[in-house]
Design brief:
Elements (H helix, E strand, L loop, with lengths): L3 E6 L3 H12 L4 E7 L2 H11 L3 E5 L1 E2 L2 E2 H11 L4 E6 L4 H10 L3 E4 L4 H12 L7 H18 L7 H11 L4 H8 L3 H14 L5 H14 L10
Parallel strand pairs: 1-2, 1-3, 3-6, 6-7
Antiparallel strand pairs: 4-5
């Protein structure tokens, strides 16, 4: 693979010097640049085009996560290793979403940090299976919150909307040119998908969703 070129980003000079000395002691790693702010980090990393950027999550003028997102947009092949003093689930999640390859605490042993740099430089992720599973679960949860009706078909959404208007199954059938029994089946299915037992719950959901969207008078505002 050759020598791994690294840029260090941390607002504490003592930390940067310590990490730089640690990494430079290895024959296959070279620290080619340092930065102490988000603004200077972006400029340095894009100019130097290293293999790995070791980024402090918290910087005086911004976030290492934002730096990661910006530099990876310019340098897709760059591996970002987030380094932080605090175990923060939100920061971990944001780092992963920004494209970081790894996330380690500053309390990490020197040999482990060296190994982490080599791991992300080789194109591998430094997230364990448990962390990855937690990230996927959070993504699914966010998706369901973003669109609570994601599981419904277009037909089921239309029927739900009409339930919200207070129509009976027969009236819905007449509106949509469906048999009343067919509508009943649709209602049962959509209630099951929404984990609801009664159509009044579905009607309340429609009302809430329209209220959240400002209800601009559209028939279906979600």
């Amino acid at each position: 693979m050759g020598v791994i070129r690294v840029v260090l980003v941390d607002d504490h000079e003592v930390v940067r010097r310590g990490v730089a000395a640690l990494l430079d002691s290895e024959d296959d790693i070279e620290v080619v640049g340092e930065a102490g702010t988000a603004e200077s980090a972006v400029a340095r990393i894009i100019a130097l085009q290293p293999d790995v950027a070791v980024l402090d999550v918290r910087l005086p003028d911004g976030s290492g996560v934002d730096v990661c997102r910006e530099v990876r947009s310019a340098l897709p092949g760059l591996a970002c290793l987030m380094l932080t003093s605090f175990a923060d689930d939100d920061a971990l999640f944001d780092s992963v979403m920004a494209g970081a390859s790894g996330y380690v605490l500053k309390q990490i042993h020197g040999s482990d940090l060296i190994g982490a740099v080599r791991t992300v430089a080789s194109g591998q992720s430094l997230l364990d299976p448990q962390t990855t599973a937690a990230m996927l679960a959070r993504l699914r949860d966010q998706e369901s919150k973003k669109d609570p009706l994601a599981a419904l078909s277009e037909q089921e959404r239309q029927i739900l909307d009409l339930i919200g208007e207070g129509l009976t199954n027969r009236q819905i059938g007449e509106r949509m040119f469906l048999a009343e029994k067919t509508v009943k089946n649709y209602v049962s299915h959509l209630l099951a998908k929404l984990d609801m037992q009664r159509r009044t719950q579905a009607a309340a959901l429609v009302t809430r969703l329209k209220a959240e969207k400002g209800d601009r008078g559209e028939r279906r505002s979600w």
